[in-house]
Design brief:
single chain; alpha/beta; Lysozyme-like; 6-stranded mixed sheet; 3-stranded antiparallel sheet; 11 strands; about 25% strand; elongated; binds zinc ion
Length: about 220
């Protein structure tokens, strides 16, 4: 289980309304739309809304999410999953909201951020028995808002993100076997088919074996060090 910093907001009408969540039907992914800001800064922004802040049109700002995934992959929880957060209008009552930090206006998530997001989302999908391919949606899918930007502009990357969550869940159901690698016993994931164990090449890497991938020729390279 990953480490989650529970930094719950003060109950208030603008960001933590203390309304019970309905049955969770899905997860909404967002970008914070504020490049290079830290996870905790975004949490503190939600906390600051409690005084009743207004936007340029003079309307009160409502906003929060159940989770924020930061630039180093850290995970903060401003709202418990049992309560409604204000992140995606009509989806708020039955969707968990995740805000994700990003380095620039392109909105692509860094590797560390992405890996944490996949792990967090996989955990949520498992606990609520949701199919990642249909239950994970973008804010864009609810309101047509340009959020999360990179994954609105790059639909294939969005599909891959959902598949990565599904893959993460599948991987945990796969058998673990022990192998001895250069004199050391190691546990690796394996699929057994007709008496043969299929393992990941990457799992064969250690201090004597290097496993890499040639992106140009599109195949793995295994080298004895
Ligand atoms: Zn959003």
């Amino acid at each position: 289980m990953m480490e989650i910093n529970k930094a719950y907001l003060t109950i208030n009408q603008y960001s933590r309304p203390n309304i019970d969540m309905g049955t969770v039907k899905g997860v909404v992914i967002h970008w914070v739309a504020n490049p290079n800001t830290r996870g905790i800064a975004n949490r503190n922004y939600f906390e600051g809304l409690k005084v009743g802040k207004k936007n340029s049109k003079g309307d009160y700002i409502y906003g929060s999410s159940h989770y924020i995934v930061g630039l180093e992959g850290e995970v903060i929880a401003p709202i418990p999953e049992t309560e409604v957060a204000y992140h995606a209008s009509t989806a708020n009552k039955d969707h968990i909201g995740i805000e994700v930090c990003h380095p620039d206006w392109g909105g692509k998530f860094s590797d560390a951020t992405y890996q944490s997001l996949i792990e967090l989302t996989a955990d949520i999908c498992k606990r609520y028995e949701l199919d990642p391919l249909t239950a994970i949606i973008r804010h864009y899918d609810v309101t047509s808002k340009d959020c999360p930007r990179y994954y609105v502009k790059n639909p294939l990357s969005w599909e891959q993100l959902k598949k990565d969550v599904k893959g993460k869940i599948l991987l945990e159901t796969i058998d673990k076997i022990k192998i001895e690698l250069n004199g050391r016993v190691k546990e690796v994931a394996a699929v057994n088919i007709q008496g043969y164990n299929y393992v990941k090449l990457r799992d064969l890497a250690d201090d004597k074996i290097e496993v890499s991938y040639d992106a140009e020729r599109k195949f793995p390279i295994i080298t004895a060090k």
